[in-house]
Amino acid sequence: MPILTPRFAAACALITAAAGVLAAQPALAATVPTPPAAVTTIKPVRVVPATTARLDATGHAWAPDAPYAHGGSYLTTTNTISHSYSSTLYKAIRRNPTGYSFPVAQPGTYFVDLFVAEISNIKPGQRVWDVTAEGKTAVANVDVVREAGQNRAWHVLFSAPVTDGVLDLGIVARAGLPLIDSIEVDYQGPQTSATTLFSDDFDGDAGTSPDAGRWGYDVGGGGWGNHELETYTDRPENASVDGSGNLAVTARPETFTGTDGITRNYTSARLSTASTFAFTYGTAQARIRTPKGKGLWPAFWALGSDMPLVGWPNCGELDVMETVGSTPNTAYQNIHGTLKTGPEWSLGTSAVLSSALSAGYHTYGLVWGPNALAITVDGRAYMTTSATDVAPANLWTFNHSFYLLIDLAVGGSWPGSPDSTTPFPAVMSVDYVHVTS
User: Fold this and answer.
1) Which of 259, 266, 296, 304 is the most buried (most CB within 10 A)?
2) Is the peptide bond before 425 cis (omega within 30 degrees of 0)?
3) Which residue segment(s) compose the domain that 296 sits in?
């Protein structure tokens, strides 16, 4: 039975009183609308702008959005929508809605996934809109054609705390008329205000190791599955605070034999929160200046905490930032999961900036909630996807806890080996790592 929030209960009480006065006309009583279903801790609300329910590629039913939507009109498109196996969710469109109201079963933080695709032949800047949640700006200047291009599945993702029983969303047009496709609202957690889950600004004396209460190390020289050339160590020579509020992860050309007995000609560091911190959903950001040079491979990423039990790729992998020396202006974003039949599946894209990443600091971010995620560079999303977008044979292995990693690899199957032009020592400088919910 749907859970009634105070405002829905009051509305139903008025309807019930009116029905009592007109008891001699039961046909009118039969027209009383059923209150819209509420988002619960275990059941999301999924809606599509259509008069009948639709199924996504995973078999989930999406209900008509009319009980939740304010304003707007229905459109449909026959355009081919790329980057989703559930394109039917993008072909039904609500044109120019002013907002939505979603009842929720209890106070908490709720994760909102707006499915969008630009179906018209317009230019960036011609259709721009904001989203508010509970009266506050959640996302500003949504410009789908700028971010995704035309006829491509895209997501606008954010979290919002709700305390009054109903999540109220507003859609505010800046240019043109907003087009919203399907919407999923999930319970994220019990918090009703922004919460810092993890924070390290790397303050401390130059040459000291990063906080052992936050960071551990992966060590060894076995190639790490990528034919890498370095030995990772836990020495300050390879990972230390620089005295100016940064973590310096340093790759050095030196012959070194690790505790695994493997001798390599480079050393570096791979820091991990596997033994200190893991989180399920939220926003993770790291401000990083990457080194330049052939054969270098810096990364900021996350692995599923169940990796020791289920192995890779069953645990899932979220690559927020990777770059290689051969493409100095490009930050790569990738996610890796497993197929129902066992092997790996992956999805990736890239952000090509106007200058080399090594020329300055950039902020690399992950926006992650139940069944959807986005990866950002300097606040701009370059990759979005959801559990409904991937192939039915792909398992969505991203609904459990993950831990963070920062590393600077040398060589390997992707970047190739360093050469005489590669500057050493090479330093990956990390200003901060913050995780919030």
Assistant:
1) 296
2) yes
3) 196-436
CATH number at residue 55: 2.60.120.430
How does pLDDT run across 88-132, given as a tens digit for each residue? 999 999 999 999 999 999 999 999 999 999 999 999 999 999 999
Say if CB 48 and CB 67 are below 8 A apart.
no
CB 341, CB 389: distance < 8 Å: no
The number of C-alpha atoms within 13 Å of 205 and in the hemisphere containing its C-beta is 1
Residue 413 located in a structural domain: yes
pLDDT at 174 over 90: yes
Residue where one domain finishes, among candidates 189, 223, 255? 189
Domain count, the chain: 2
Strands (E), 277-343: 282-289, 296-304, 317-322, 330-338
Question: Is 317 a catalytic site residue?
Answer: yes
- In this structure, what token pair is assigned to residue 116? 């969008």
How far is CA 209 from its chain centroid? 30
**Predicted confidence (pLDDT) per residue in 45-99, tens digit:** 999 999 999 999 999 999 999 999 999 999 999 999 999 999 999 999 999 999 9
Residue of 147, 230, 317, 344 with catalytic role: 317
Catalytic residue list contains 184: no
Q: How far apart are CA 62 and CA 67, in angstroms?
A: 13
Strands of 194-290 (E only): list them: 196-200, 216-218, 230-232, 239-241, 247-257, 263-268, 270-272, 282-289
User: Residue 237: which CATH number?
Assistant: 2.60.120.200
Are residues 349 and 314 part of one domain?
yes
Give the alpha-carbon dihedral of 18, 21, 23, 24, to 10 degrees: -130
Which residue out of 147, 184, 228, 322 is catalytically annotated? 322
Mean pLDDT of 236-246: 98
Residues 353 and 371 in one domain: yes
In this structure, is residue 348 part of a structural domain?
Answer: yes
Residues 185 and 201 in one domain: no
